[in-house]
Amino acid sequence: MKNLKRKLMPVLLMGATVLPVTAQSLDKMNWLNEPAQWEIKDGKTLVMDVPAKTDFWRVAHYGFTVDDGPFYYATYGGEFEAVVKITGNYVTTFDQMGLMIRIDHENWIKAGVEYVNGKQNVSAVVTHKTSDWSVIQLPDAPRSIWIKAVRRLDAVEIFYSRDGKEYTMMRTCWLQDNCPVMVGLMGACPDGKGFTAIFEEFKVTQLPDQRRLEWAKRQAEKE
């Protein structure tokens, strides 16, 4: 697998303007903790070997802090919807991959699939100085799962799907609003020797700003 180097070209979308669905250009993103082996195929699919002994976690329950998993991201402002299809050859407990939304090393959300005791779980970790963890065990082992995150004002709603069409909500959590965030694709392998993660159909849709809509409604009512 060819190890490709990419330059940072963050996408800042700060206004309240309604923008169309955007298939994020994978060759115009940046790495945090770049893995040794990764590849972009046809400009649409990211394949990476998730390194061993990597994770994202802060303090709670386990008593340690780690922030060294690979994360491939672009920067967005305002409100948006992010979706990705994920496929992993999970091997060891805590192998994981999915979406990450990140302000800084103390404030971030990761959501996707986490492999625990031989079972796939849809999983979310929300961190504001300390981390929490929620999981829903799947009854089978689907080849792929779609993960969707919707940022609205000071909240993020997280969903999963088996077919990319019908989504089930798994979590709603707080995230500071009115600030740009890094949005992208993460993997981690805390206890294993690494695994291969495949990310497809990564799209970000900029949403109309709720405050602007409410303001416009009030103005219309005054007329």
Write up what this structure looks like.
- With 223 residues, the chain is mainly beta.
- It has a single domain (23-222), classed as Jelly Rolls, CATH 2.60.120.
- It is 6% helix and 53% strand.
- It has one helix and 17 strands.
- It has one helix spanning 210-222, and strands at 21-23, 30-32, 38-41, 45-50, 56-58, 65-67, 71-76, 79-88, 96-104, 107-116, 119-128, 130-137, 145-152, 155-161, 167-174, 181-188, 195-207.
- The strands form three sheets. Strands 1, 3, 4, 8, 13, 14, 15 and 17 form an eight-stranded antiparallel β-sheet that branches. It has a seven-stranded antiparallel β-sheet with strand order 2-7-16-9-10-11-12, with no helix packed on it.
- The N and C termini lie far apart (62 Å).
- The model is unreliable at 1-21 (pLDDT under 50).
Name the beta content range. Answer: over 45%
- Calculate the mean pLDDT score and round it: 90
Order of helices and strands: EEEEEEEEEEEEEEEEEH
The second-level CATH architecture is Sandwich
* Rounded Rg: 17 Å
- Give start-end ranges of low-pLDDT stretches: 1-21
Cα distance, first to last residue?
Answer: 62 Å
Output the number of helix runs.
1
Largest sheet: 8 strands, antiparallel
CATH fold call: Jelly Rolls
Helix and strand composition category: mainly beta
The tally of strands reads 17
Helix content: under 10%
Number of domains: 1
Shape label? globular
CATH C-level class: Mainly Beta
